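re: that chain from earlier
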Amino acid sequence: MNQFFTLSTDKFVPISYDNKHLFNTYELVNNFIRTRISSSFKNILAKPILENHQVDWYSPFSGLKETVEVAAQRKYFAFKDELQQHIANLSRSNDPNAHYWVGLLQKVFEQKDNILFTNGQDICVVWGWAFDNYQIQRPEIDASQEKPQEAPMEEPFAVVLPPQETKPVEAPTPEPPREEPPLPEEEEEETPEEEEIPEEEETPEEEETPEEPLAEIPWQETPLAEALPQEQGKSFLEFLKEFAATYWWFLVLLLALISAVFFVQSFIY
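^ sequence. v structure.
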C-alpha cells in the first residue's frame, strides 16, 4: 500500500453513522465493493489510518493526486451509477440489515464528502469526513454532435460526339425451307417360332438275369496215414560205419595224439 494523502482532524469533522465513526467501517465497505461491484473499481476506496490527530490515507495505486478532471469524474460517476443499482435493490428488501447497508453506502459515498484522486488512469476516493467539496460534478455530455458536411460531388463533363453517318444494313434474304426426309418406318422383327423339342423315347429296361448258384464242391476225407510221409530212420551203428570208412585217417591221428599225451605225462611223473 502507498501513502498518498494526510488529513488533519483539526480541520474537518468526522462523520458518524449508527453511533460509530464512519472511517471505522472501512473493512466492511471495502469487502462489499470487492464482491458486488465491477473489478475495475475494487480499489476505489482509500484506507484511513488515524494517528495523533491526523489521518494517513493509503492505496495500492501510486502517483495519486487530487483532481477535478473530467475523465476522472466520469469514472467516479460510472462507479456511483453501478452502486446506486445495488442500493435500489437493497431498499426494496424488508430485511433490516439491508436498510442498514443502504444508509451506510449512501453516507460513505456522499458526493460532497468525497475527495477524488487519480494517477491519470486509476481513481481513488478519500471519505468519512465532512469536506463540503462541491467540485465533483457530473460531466455534461453534449448529445448534439455536429455531422461533418459532405463535400458536393463534382458533376462529370458531358462529352458530345459528332453524329456519325450510318449506312442502312440490308436484310439477308431468307433461305427456302428444306424438306426433311421422312423417318424410315421401323420393320417389325419376326420372332422365331419355338421349335418343338421331340420327346425322348422310353428305352425298355433290361431284364435282370438271375445269378446262377455256385456249384457245391464235394469234400473228401483223406486218411492221415497217406498225408504224412513215412520217415525212414537210420540206425546209429550204420552211421558209425559210414563215418569210420570215410574219416579213418582222422581217427588214426587222434589216437596218436592221445598216446603222445600219456607218454609225456608218464615221463614227467
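The CA atoms of residues 22 and 39 lie 24 Å apart.
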